[in-house]
């Protein structure tokens, strides 16, 4: 128990620092990159005077550290602010020049995120399930049959999948499975069926890493002495695999899962949601980037980095639990 | 994109939606009571104001006088009526048809009279009368209103009787004819809403064929208005949804989720024109594409350098790149605008002349010219990056040291307009200007009159005088003559911008969708549309 407390206190404090750094970098980049949210808020014909007044009223002309300090205090109280652009019903309402916008009449960022989150979770879950369905049999076969055709097949499939851009895969799958054959719906979301094609795209993007990780990890364990010794002592091969090899291979797989898969998943979801007009956090964020809706981008960046940090901490904890020799 | 709903055979569609998309997509409404009801949905990729396309969409439908954003103007087309409507065809750009007014006439130089349609009601059930016209015109033309830039100035409205109004510009010192075409563009609000700003902010209330139902995320839901004076639309429900990716919109059309998609890329248009079950539509818009020179700083403060650049660009090659999305025109106005003419002597590609002008300006072969930044966007208009590279190469060939800067729309938009100090970034800027009525001053004054010159900063007394002259003409015939024989040739000769070509809007829709009318500035009339 003492170990767990010490572990979480140490790692969470490190994680908080990482999240703060990410937040500051994103916050600063948004403000120095070209593209003024005030132009989006007020519309193209807004006068320079009106733009300056609105920017000042929204605090966007204060020094960046001042803005960031104000933002962090706000976030610490659980308030991620209100969208610059989206109304309470979630629709964009930029372009009105009736003075500075009353942000209290705009959508709270957390509401927008919570509305979009279930869609993203559905897509991510389905994508992961598909990825595991693809990767586990191929990876296991490749790992257990090092040097044979199963290993080559795993390598070829991984190489093929990794070379497919997810934008291209998405467009082709929509065309083939939806537009041409009518087998599945594809755009937007009106039910779980709408998540199948985008989830396949996510799975195709993620499975190469999984296949390789599983194959390498399994193969390494199969070549360990204990695998043959166990069989010599009468333990059936399949039992050795499922009881010992898979368990021992789990630690590196967990690390791959946390370090690479979740990062890939987050990045991949953004692109996939955009292609499929899937109403999750990825689409919300990409639209926010186009519209320079700073509060949404900042909140998503903070939450995404926090999720990554937390998953890494949990995976490290799980790894040390599985193998107490490991120290994180 | 817009869509209507209908029973479908595809496994993933149990009920119907007819969709139109222009970056807007549609989504069906759930519930058995909705089944077999046509729905139209739209999606918009671009945002526009007094001429500029844009990327906004959504809830700004409440008060049309509060913005100049194109997609919202398009959405407002479903909701609001106008006194008149202008089809804006190249064959007859000045044609005016009745809408909420049944007849109109010029009483004197400062007075127009409109006879209004009887029996019209607003979506909230209030009757439409002359007092609504008075409230709307006096409110929208107030210079404090953000969209007042659309209108020539303040106007006073006299209520003669419930169905007759007179617009008077006498107290404000300009001819009433300036409202002749603008009346086809000004959405009529309910007088009670205008009197109560809080009510006005709550929901849009017009006399148009569809009424507002709700906004759900990136889609707006409309419903056919039972009391529409032109008869209730056959399409019961309309969904206007934002789908940002052009390929997604096309695929949504192909798989039947959308029924109409707009703002196609040229190659998408060509490809879709070969698809079974899809029909395409191509029509000249009220938008021209321009290269504006920053005329208030070197080297383009010298008309000879501007003309040299003009003569360096082979617009035929530009059009070859733009393909179906452009049409050649030698005028700073679109052919669907009042006053358009094929300007005699419009500067053409002529490298020898370009060299002569550069030498005369003190830059032989371009020597001594500063680095010239050409700012363009990508993902906003068709092929801007591609023809930007071509134009840069053509200018470099004549000695202009051009650097092409390609920006995504939000960054480009920030660079577009002149700033508080009167200067704008870069030296050449690519932009389109799209307006909703045949009125030429919606293009000419914001761009070429020194009191605005929003992008190029031109300050030329001759251009100002000519623009004032055409504006103050007392008859349409006189105005047309001034525009065609003086103003437009003068703008071409002074070259504060190059009008590269006129934009053609490309759309595709389900072959089951009929009776759709497209306006050259984007709005879509679905009041007579059907989905078989």
Characterization of the model:
The complex is a heterodimer of chains A (328) and B (532). Chain A has 328 residues and is mainly α. In chain A, 73% of the residues lie in helices and 3% in strands. Chain A has twelve helices and two strands, in the order H-H-H-H-E-E-H-H-H-H-H-H-H-H. Chain A has helices at residues 2-32, 37-42, 48-57, 64-76, 109-144, 149-162, 166-180, 196-222, 225-232, 237-275, 281-290, 294-322, and strands at 82-87, 106-108. In chain A, strands 1-2 form a two-stranded antiparallel ribbon. With 532 residues, chain B is an alpha+beta fold. Helix content of chain B is 26%, strand content 23%. Chain B has helices spanning 70-79, 130-140, 191-195, 197-202, 246-254, 266-272, 303-312, 315-322, 351-360, 384-397, 409-416, 441-448, 461-471, 476-494; strands spanning 2-5, 17-20, 23-25, 39-41, 43-44, 84-85, 97-98, 101-108, 111-116, 156-161, 164-168, 210-216, 219-224, 237-242, 260-261, 278-293, 326-327, 372-377, 402-407, 428-433, 497-510, 513-514, 517-518, 524-525, 530-531. In chain B, strands 1, 2, 3, 4, 5, 12, 13 and 14 form an eight-stranded mixed beta sheet that branches. In chain B, strands 15, 16, 17, 18, 19, 20 and 21 form a seven-stranded mixed beta sheet that branches. A four-stranded antiparallel beta sheet of chain B has the order 8-9-11-10, with helices on one face. Chain B is globular, with a radius of gyration of 23 Å. The model of chain B is unreliable at 1-58 (pLDDT under 50). Classes of the chains: A mainly alpha (328), B alpha+beta (532).
